[in-house]
Amino acid sequence: MFRPSTDAPLESRGGDEGAMAREILIARLVDARANDHDWIAVRVLADADPLIWQQIAATQRDAALLVEAARPAALAAERVALPMLDGPVRAERGERDEQGEQLNGWPDRLSALRSSRLGWAIAAMVALAWTSTLLTPKDPRLTAMPGNAAGLAASTPDEALSNYLEKGQKSGRVVTELPQRIVLESRPAPEGQGYEVLYVRQILERAVVDDLYRFGMAEDGSQALIRARPTPPRAEGRIGL
Amino acid sequence: MILPSHPNPAPQAVASDHPASSERSVARPSLVERAMSGDGDAVSTLWENHRRWVAAVLLAHKPASADLDDLLQEVAVTLLRKVRTLDDPANFQPWLRVVALNVARLAGRKFSAGPRLVRFDGEGEVEPSAGTQAGAAAGGASLIVSEEAKRLMALAMLLHPDYREPLLLRAVHDLPYAAIGAILGLPETTIETRIARGRRMLREAAEAAARTRQSAVGSGVRMAASPGSPH
How far apart are CA B12 and CA B15, in angstroms? Predict the structure, then answer.
């Protein structure tokens, strides 16, 4: 690590230490951290080797180019909000923060669903519960299948999906759409440009049901619905499946 | 000529609510403490104050084909979930950096398992992976970045992470050296040295790449010349 000598003048230092001192001087100038002593040191160096001005200019240009190249990353950071406050209902409008309430205690489950095996287990359980005629959801608002909750006025699938997400969040059915999409298959596009992908879009929903069931095996070996117990979160916050 | 060193305070493990300047990095633990006690507004404000440098850390450590938006979302969710488990508000920034590092490394393991496509736009169309490492490193956002900037970013991504990360923390968030030191847990003089060394290596690599391009262009011109003309 460079440590400035209090004895030897800068220009008399040879080897790597002198080169490092030169680079640190350049960095201070480029980052507007140079004091009067630094400027004097640069002029002394430049008298012996004018090349330093070229190096300062090149380093300054590189710093500006890096800022330019990093701008998409800076914009990405501005785009990403915390999930809790990303919904359409906000407390400052005097309305219930429904998405926040839905996420209260759920963020652990949000993370758990990122494990695809766990997610599929949960999805299978809920899907089986929905398809079974033995279950009657308490809240009639939660009985609508995806698509029916969407506005009929939507002219494209994306509009319909957007309507479904918005109305779902307002009603309490939809918690959030998970950002990661699971790619199942990909291949070159038939048109010759780009790729065709088959992927799963994950939407987190909540439901209140009278009972939970899972598919198990009856004594005779046939499949049967068996009453299941809710799975409590593990100590670290993951669902204990 | 004596080159004076700049003031080198020992890195303070402070709970900085805003990382931008050395003055603002002085401890304001109340925001972190409020977040730790479950104040949603405090968590949100913390995220808004720190997400840009988190993006820089992710950019420095993520695989080229990973989507930066997705990784930022992962870090945001982890912040929301686990800020209450922080044992000392003063360790918030180093803790958040470790969260970002873990998210980036996990993405590296996922992407090493097979090919991935970068992102999907709102219409459900698929965009192929960015052709250059710089384009992918920039997260693939629809923003015009010059080819020269992309080339330099690609070279920066080849630097050792110890040099790459402080450079990107400067580039993405224009953080002062003291603030970078607080995030990385290093003295300001070390940050100064790493940035200076990183820039020198980048400058030399850019010059070498430019010479290679000029040499290739020159060869092409000579090859295109007629047999009878002087070279």
Answer: 9
